[in-house]
Amino acid sequence: MFEPLNSRYLQVMLPPGSSILRLRRTSVVVDNVAVVEDVVQKLEEILPLEKRKTLCLLMDMRDGPGLTDDNLEVQLNKVIPRLIAGFKRRAVLLRTEFGKLQAMRKIKEAQEELRAFTNEDEALDYLLEVQRPNRSGK
After folding, report:
1. Are 55 and 20 in contact (CB under 8 A)?
2. ∠ CA 6-52-106 to the nearest 5 degrees?
3. Which of 41, 106, 114, 119 lies 20 to 30 Å (CA to CA) from residue 100?
4. Distances (CA, A) of 5 to 13, 109, 129
5. Phi then psi for 33, rounded to 5 degrees?
6. pLDDT digits over 46-62, tens only?
7. Of 131, 116, 53, residue with least CA distance to 89
8. Taking the alpha carbons of 51, 52, 58, 61 in that order, is the dihedral positive or negative?
9. Residue 38 CB neighbour total at 10 angstroms
């Protein structure tokens, strides 16, 4: 059984019977990379890489404030690969199209296999590999 991880900054949960690990960013400003490193370390202990390969990761960043400290962003970019490593599929959920575009640029730069969304249903469909018919009905 997966015990949820909760901090002022992040909540990580795996609902019973779900194949999607949910990481939800809170509205508290992260001013130190150590708080994220702590969550990543705990996640690595609870859910090592070999246990992640059948799970998907949904990072819900909609409540999180944007980063304004370039140095902190650089430090976080070094920790994120450990956080997302090993999952079958990975998606990040953002509040705005601007946030999505910014994330897509960073994902491309980092060459990570991660998709950005503003719509939770679309993110879940991607993670669960649900195929929806296109709007024309074909």
Report:
1. yes
2. 75
3. 41
4. 7, 29, 26
5. -65, -20
6. 899 999 999 999 999 99
7. 53
8. positive
9. 15
Other CB atoms within 10 A of residue 92 CB: 26
At 29, the amino acid letter reads V
Using 50 as the pLDDT threshold, list the residues of the chain that sit under it.
135-138
* Whole-number Cα distances in Å, 74 to 61, 78, 80, 106, 110: 18, 7, 10, 11, 12
54: Cβ contacts below 8 Å, ≥ 6 apart: 19, 88
63 and 31 in contact (C-beta within 8 Å)? Answer: no
91 near 115, Cβ under 8 Å? yes
Q: For Cα atoms 101, 104, 105, give the angle at the middle one, nearest 5 degrees.
A: 90
At residue 13, the 3 state secondary structure works out as strand
